[in-house]
Design brief:
two-stranded antiparallel ribbon; 17 helices; about 5% strand
């Protein structure tokens, strides 16, 4: 069977590609080991950890048990209960606590701000002034956004990494509530290693962004689009009502279609009209963004614009080869290739074999032919 000269065979990898599924965590429950770690500050101050769990309406048997766990709503209750018992926002992890009344003053200092970026800066200045063990700061990240760096100097005997995680969870959910929609984080930097739970739950998956572990510092990275977002809430009463509702901190918010999916849809529309090599500038304009921003957003999803465009064109070619009797030369012309040799080279780069070899290998596969026919009909808009 004819293969592409000088090319590595990819075999079945390039038959018909459909969007991959984003799999969620195996079980969205924080295990009992992490629950015990969250209560370490309280235990060091002489509080009964199991009694705190009872008052948070959580079975104390979960404490330290890797086979047990709590959900996102129970986590909210537990954190609030620890804070109330200790009168400390930071759960007893610092030598100097932060009383809840002082936290209220901090919230009041930025709830009157206009944008998220302004509120973030005011919050950081207030926090930096009121607590020596917390050293927040912001730095610009190559002109694409801001890094919110958090320095936590915890007391001996506590698990610092669990504090970083729960503070980042609070920051993420609180500021999402503040602007009335989920933050679109550009990334997280975590000094510690990736945590592993017995039940397989990835506690960092809820942030929906790339995470760098064993980093030199702990930080959240925000994009300018969120930094300029106007605040949707502005009172302590709304804040109290939000937490009284016990929001689910493990719920992954619906951010709408991914940039990959949106880019694919725009390119399919272009290709349907005969524009097979649409430039990124045209796609970005249709998506109401900038070419540089589109490249960055696709990169965060592990994609590139050129790869998406090439893949879609290859899928068109594969569908024509199996769902029609068109000669290969005509398929190449239909897909915008001016020379038969150019189509063959491009198809080889995508599929690892020539168009004729691909057709000969898969044309007798009824399932593949049916899938190709359905895709071709969908792509053409029939």
């Amino acid at each position: 069977m004819e293969e592409c000269p000088g090319k590595m065979r990819r075999g079945e990898a390039a038959t018909l590609h459909f969007p991959r599924e984003d799999r969620g965590p195996v079980l969205s429950r924080l295990d009992g080991v992490a629950v015990r770690q969250l209560l370490q500050g309280a235990a060091l101050r002489g509080y009964d950890a199991r009694e705190i769990l009872r008052r948070a309406a959580i079975d104390p048997a979960v404490y330290g048990n890797p086979g047990a766990g709590i959900d996102g709503r129970s986590l909210v209750r537990l954190v609030r209960r620890i804070q109330l018992e200790l009168d400390d926002v930071y759960l007893g992890f610092f030598a100097q606590g932060c009383r809840l009344a002082l936290e209220t003053e901090r919230l009041l200092s930025f709830l009157h701000c206009t944008t998220f970026g302004e509120a973030l800066r005011v919050s950081i200045r207030f926090t930096d002034a009121m607590l020596a063990d917390v050293g927040p700061g912001i730095t610009e990240t190559r002109g694409s956004g801001l890094q919110h760096i958090c320095k936590y100097n915890t007391v001996p005997g506590v698990e610092r990494d669990i504090l970083v995680w729960i503070r980042f969870v609070w920051i993420y959910h609180f500021f999402s509530w503040l602007i009335g929609r989920p933050l679109v984080l550009r990334g997280l930097s975590i000094r510690g290693p990736r945590p592993v739970q017995h039940n397989g739950f990835d506690r960092f998956a809820l942030f929906g962004c790339p995470v760098r572990f064993d980093a030199p510092f702990d930080a959240l990275s925000y994009g300018w689009q969120d930094l300029t977002a106007r605040l949707a809430h502005g009172s302590i009463r709304e804040y109290d009502e939000y937490y009284a509702s016990e929001p689910d901190w493990f719920a992954v918010p619906d951010r709408g279609p991914s940039w990959r999916a949106r880019t694919e849809q725009v390119l399919i529309e272009f290709q349907r009209s005969g524009l097979w090599s649409a430039p990124i500038e045209a796609a970005a304009a249709r998506l109401q963004t900038r070419p540089r921003r589109l490249r960055q957003d696709l990169a965060l999803e592990g994609e590139s614009f050129q790869d998406v465009r090439t893949r879609l064109r290859g899928e068109w070619a594969a569908a024509y080869l199996l769902a029609s009797d068109m000669p290969i030369t005509e398929i190449g012309f239909a897909l915008g290739f001016s020379e038969p040799g150019s189509f063959t080279r491009h198809f080889c780069a995508w599929a690892g074999m020539t168009p004729s070899a691909y057709r000969a290998r898969h044309v007798a596969d009824a399932a593949k032919v049916a899938a190709a026919t359905a895709m071709l009909s969908e792509r053409k808009g029939f």
